[in-house]
Design a protein that fits this description.
This protein is mainly β. The chain is 0% helix and 42% strand. It is built from no helices and 14 strands.
């Protein structure tokens, strides 16, 4: 903002890099959303019926937000586990802006489905009762300004685990049904 002493009325015209800014004729200049194009040297010219006065230049530097970094630290790419097993998933996330920025959240995504979002380190999640098949895991880090980065994907395979099954009939058993015209009910038997 600027304040000029002198005979009223006083008018103002803000300038950027020496050029008048259209519509910027108040004694203050407001930026509603800074962008890199707003960087420059600013001044204001105050005028009344007796003359003009130009302020000293003020330099505006706009710092760009650097997106966070994120990587999955566990499991390893290509890992295999048995169906029904629990899978420990962990990630490291950092906001390179240092004191300027912080990590707001880290989300764990499996096959495009967000399973958990954590707001504090350590970023660790356990996927319980993993399902059969090939899966793709990623982590998404978001900083306090809203910039988001997705980790490199990690592929895992969940394979069938026969030790997680119950045997109802022994392998090689023969089933026979004697059709007597009546319902055998629970009297089925193996031989």
């Amino acid at each position: 903002s600027a304040y000029a002493l002198g005979t009223s009325p006083v008018t103002y015209q803000w300038r950027k890099n020496g050029n008048p800014i259209p519509g910027a004729t108040n004694n203050y200049l407001v930026f509603t959303s800074l962008a890199s194009g707003d960087a420059g040297t600013y001044s204001v010219v105050a005028a009344n019926g007796l003359g003009t006065a130009t302020s000293q230049n003020a330099t505006l530097t706009v710092l760009a937000n650097t997106p966070p970094t994120v990587s999955l630290t566990s499991p390893a790419d290509g890992a295999t586990l048995s169906s029904g097993s629990d899978l420990s998933i962990s990630a490291d996330a950092n906001d390179p802006d240092g004191a300027y920025g912080d990590i707001a959240s880290v989300a764990f995504v499996i096959d495009g489905i967000r399973l958990a979002t954590l707001s504090n380190a350590p970023y660790f999640f356990i996927w319980t009762n993993s399902t059969l098949g090939s899966h793709t895991l990623t982590a998404e880090a978001t900083d306090n300004v809203g910039a988001t980065t997705v980790s490199s994907p990690v592929s895992i395979s969940v394979t069938f685990n026969p030790s997680n099954t119950n045997t109802l009939v022994n392998q090689g058993s023969q089933w026979r049904y004697l059709d007597t015209g009546t319902d055998p009910g629970p009297t089925w038997a193996t031989q």
